[in-house]
């Protein structure tokens, strides 16, 4: 006998070592999940599997927003500091760092065609980025509150953004201006979604209602009845037959012409922050603290429509409303665009300063966001095996998961055969003896450092770490003494600074970060003393204490200049390394005063 159960918890797991701030499902398959947390990591998971696929630790502040592209091969994340990071998931690596927002990133979306993405922030700005040119090409201003959500239209010509100021603003990318501002009576806009075919927009707000807007007339079509809690996420059925709204512990299924709540499903999952639809199943994700839970809804058991036929993607839908044209032509509106009520800044000059344009200038501005009919990036929906409803025994023993500490290799898509079990073991053991020797050597040096440290011989323990010529040992010790500036002296600076050349030139991010932190500490606490002593060289060399201090200051100044040269040369490198080195090189300006 078939079960009448319509929803079930697929899994619940610990996603991060600290609070989870954001999560996103791959909208195409519903089988991949990204999470970001206060631990400054982005973790990528296969939905329904217990272990993390990869853990990306490139941010220097908590991760506030994540988003996959339509192919689920790239991902972008935004941090509390306002920086965006773009990842290639096939290769499992960071490919771009895009600084620009003045505060936390709160909304992200990829453009359906070309190498563009959009971001919204607590700084109340929407930015459009050209990933290929590594810079911001437009900044749209007008919101007076934090931007909570944004999305690019299916034809790639518009961006819609929702804000705490109670407005939803429609931006025309080809014209570079605002088309219209939709006003919500009360509450901030929490989520929004374009209809997959028609000129129709759905918005959800903290006033617990879902509103539907006609993008030709810019009029509100209908508004749902108030729910018990605010709307956290919205998803249209892939065929546009209905809309799903995620609330706290409740899923509601809506129609809009006429307005109706066709069905509801109670799920004790907390606030549904994202949803995806695949294989006649709706996958919902939510988070609480360090935990993430995934729920599945069988849509075949929900009343989605009154036997309405499938709507063809023609110029006019069955509702009489125009459909999005994915062939690259600009969608027209029945109302002439209003003069923009907001201030719009074009940052082409600034973007070109940050990175030179590519050799080919590309299409003219009017066509840069156009889709190509024969080369659409949106892949066809692949049939996926639906998630199995667990039995009572499965529910009694849910799978556990823990976040990984290092990046796992991405799946091989080149068709190479996997290793046999014995070949895998041989590969792992190949460098085993060498690795054991490295660990033993590091442990030996750390034991010597610890013995001197325990006797309060701080200077001697630092000298031992430097003389060990083991970068890992020095980084371990610096991570401790950098937290205690009172331990530092001019003599310790003279010991440590020569050893930072290797760390700052290292390819390891942890070594670079340790060296940069140490240099900033030295510049902050000792640069004035070093500069003063060099400018006032002792005339009487009989005063040995002054002469010794002068020699140390001169040595420190020389080492700092060498480190400044390294930072300047590495500032030209792409990605997070170049960004960090640019910031560090600016800190050396104090030596020129």
Task: Provide structural commentary.
- With 593 residues, the chain is of the alpha+beta class.
- Helix content is 24%, strand content 30%.
- The protein contains eleven helices and 28 strands.
- It has helices spanning 348-354, 392-396, 421-430, 432-454, 458-467, 471-481, 490-496, 500-504, 509-535, 544-570, 575-587, and strands at residues 7-14, 20-25, 32-37, 42-46, 52-56, 63-68, 74-79, 84-88, 93-98, 105-110, 116-121, 125-130, 135-141, 147-152, 158-163, 167-172, 177-183, 189-194, 200-205, 210-214, 220-223, 233-236, 243-256, 259-271, 274-278, 281-288, 291-298, 344-345.
- The strands form seven sheets. It has a five-stranded antiparallel β-sheet with strand order 10-11-12-13-28. A four-stranded antiparallel β-sheet has the order 1-27-26-25, with no helix packed on it.
- A hairpin with a 5-residue loop joins strand 10 and strand 11 (116-121).
- Helix 4 (432-454) runs antiparallel to helix 5, helix 9 (509-535) runs parallel beside helix 11 and helix 10 (544-570) runs antiparallel to helix 11.
- The chain is elongated.
Measured by DSSP, the beta-strand proportion falls in 25-35%
Q: How is the quaternary structure best described?
A: single chain
Major sheet: size, sense and barrel closure? 5 strands, antiparallel
Annotation, overall tally of beta strands:
28
What radius of gyration results from the CA coordinates? 28 Å
- Which class best fits the helix and strand makeup? alpha+beta
Widest sheet: strand ordering? 10-11-12-13-28
């Amino acid at each position: 006998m078939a079960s009448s159960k319509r929803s079930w918890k697929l899994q619940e797991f610990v996603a991060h070592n600290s609070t989870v701030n954001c999560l996103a499902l791959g909208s195409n398959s519903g089988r991949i999940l990204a999470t970001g947390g206060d631990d400054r990591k982005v973790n990528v998971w296969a939905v329904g599997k217990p272990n993390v696929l990869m853990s990306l630790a490139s941010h220097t502040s908590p991760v506030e927003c994540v988003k996959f592209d339509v192919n689920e091969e790239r991902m972008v994340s935004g941090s509390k500091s306002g920086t965006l990071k773009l990842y290639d998931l096939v290769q499992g690596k960071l490919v771009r760092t895009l600084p620009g927002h003045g505060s936390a990133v709160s909304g992200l979306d990829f453009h359906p065609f070309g190498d563009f993405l959009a971001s919204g922030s607590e700084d109340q700005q929407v930015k459009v980025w050209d990933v290929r040119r590594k810079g911001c090409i437009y900044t749209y201003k007008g919101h007076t509150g934090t931007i909570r959500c944004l999305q690019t239209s299916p034809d790639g010509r518009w961006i819609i953004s929702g804000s705490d100021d109670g407005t939803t603003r429609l931006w025309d990318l080809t014209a570079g201006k605002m088309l219209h501002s939709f006003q919500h009576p009360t509450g901030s806009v929490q989520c929004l979604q374009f209809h997959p075919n028609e000129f129709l927009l759905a918005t959800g707000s903290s006033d617990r209602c879902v509103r539907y807007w006609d993008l030709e007339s810019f009029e509100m079509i209908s508004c749902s009845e108030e729910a018990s809690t605010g709307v956290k996420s919205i998803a249209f059925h892939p065929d546009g037959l209905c809309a799903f709204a995620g609330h706290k512990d409740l899923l509601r299924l809506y129609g809009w012409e006429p307005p109706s709540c066709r069905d509801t499903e109670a799920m004790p999952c907390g606030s549904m922050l994202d949803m995806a639809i695949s294989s006649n199943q709706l996958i919902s994700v939510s988070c609480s603290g360090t935990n993430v839970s995934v729920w599945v809804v069988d849509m075949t058991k929900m009343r989605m429509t009154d036997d309405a036929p499938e709507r063809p993607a023609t110029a006019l839908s069955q509702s009489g409303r125009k459909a999005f044209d994915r062939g690259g032509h600009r969608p027209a509106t029945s109302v002439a665009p209003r003069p923009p009520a907001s201030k719009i800044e074009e940052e082409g000059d600034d973007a070109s300063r940050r990175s030179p344009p590519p050799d080919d200038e590309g299409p003219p501005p009017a066509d840069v966001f156009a889709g190509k009919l024969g080369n659409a990036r949106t892949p066809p929906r692949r049939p996926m095996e639906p998630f199995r409803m667990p039995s009572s025994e499965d529910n009694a023993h849910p799978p556990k998961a823990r976040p990984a500490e290092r990046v796992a290799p991405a799946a091989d898509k080149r068709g190479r055969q996997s290793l046999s079990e014995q070949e895998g073991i041989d590969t792992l053991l190949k460098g085993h003896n060498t690795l054991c020797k490295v660990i033993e050597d590091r442990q030996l040096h750390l034991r010597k450092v610890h013995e001197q440290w325990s006797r309060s011989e701080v200077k001697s323990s630092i000298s031992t770490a430097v003389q060990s010529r083991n970068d890992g040992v020095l980084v371990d010790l610096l991570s401790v003494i950098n937290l205690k500036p009172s331990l530092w002296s001019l003599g310790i600076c003279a010991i440590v600074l020569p050893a930072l050349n290797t760390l700052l030139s290292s390819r390891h991010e942890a070594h670079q970060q340790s060296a940069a932190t140490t240099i900033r500490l030295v510049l902050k606490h000792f640069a004035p003393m070093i500069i003063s002593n060099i400018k006032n060289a002792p005339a009487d060399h009989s005063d040995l204490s002054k002469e010794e201090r002068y020699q140390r200051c001169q040595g420190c100044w020389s080492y700092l200049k060498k480190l400044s040269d390294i930072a300047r040369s590495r500032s030209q490198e792409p990605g997070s390394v170049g960004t960090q080195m640019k910031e560090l090189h600016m800190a050396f300006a104090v030596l020129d005063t």
